[in-house]
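dude i think i finally got it to work??
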Amino acid sequence: MKIRRFLSILLLLCLAVNSTALAATTSKKTAVTVLYNGIVTKRYGSSTTNVYGTMDKTSKALKTLKPGSEIEITAIYPNWVQVKNGTGVGYILRNRIDVTDTVDPVKTPPYPVMEHFYYALIDRDVEVKADKKSGSATLTQLTKGARVAIIGVEDGWAKLIYHRQYGYVDTRALAELYPIASNIEEAGTQEPLAVFTSYYSDNEDRINNLAVACKYISKVMKPGESMNFNHTAGPFTAKRGYLPAPVLKDGKVTTNYGGGSCQVSSTLWDTLMQLPGITVLMRKPHGNNAASYLPHGMDASSGATNLNFIFRNDYSFPIRIDASTHDHALFIAIYKGS
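look at this
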């Protein structure tokens, strides 16, 4: 995709501006570009939605909006959107909005795509930090050999998405930083077309299920070929290698064979969303608040007849799915296959 390099430069420039600087613009005239139009969601009945001055729902609200109120979105973050607010900007939680259209579909990815432009191999055990400081809170631990999708690099820290916030890894712990293909049509077979990493906890049975599902979906898909996640990764039975583990259904946690496989279908969807040559035929979220291990609205449930992820390769070339787990990191990359 010829505009991908342009988008990567634009996005990295946007990400270099921290939330404090963005919040400061609420009090003065600001030149911002509207990326998406939307409305305050009607899913919660007559419940109103706050626009905050910072990405902190304990901070003072700038104003309150009624369901159906129109909004103009100027940036997206793992759990928030930045919106125009008078001559400045404000912030709304992502679960409180519905996006109606993309202003410039040629230059802007569909909502809620969050593109990654690099991936890295972890060279030594390292902590993922909540901020670009060695003394900041630790979000998770990664060990040597893990592969992680990277948005960009800021001040010597590799920036990634951890659950519903950004995380940071000291670049000195990276064996190498590999770029994603800047032109999909001209890419080779060794550089990924898209990557995404999600992170998980220490439930051993669930970890087993993640690894099993990754094994089944790692394959080459021909042009025009579709993948039905439930048929490819499932059936989710002991015979197929799955164990009973927690399952999120309709916002409630239960236990079933294959618990955790939804994280694989979700991570696969987040990877494929970055590729315009992939057509999604079926995808459903885990209820209004979605799965908490990913940015809001970026999950794809699976495991039942009415809960499945189905997509088709509409590129003129085959694609290869490479999915794997390593300790706390579930990594998926899409390559040109053969």
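The CA atoms of residues 4 and 182 lie 6 Å apart.
im so relieved honestly
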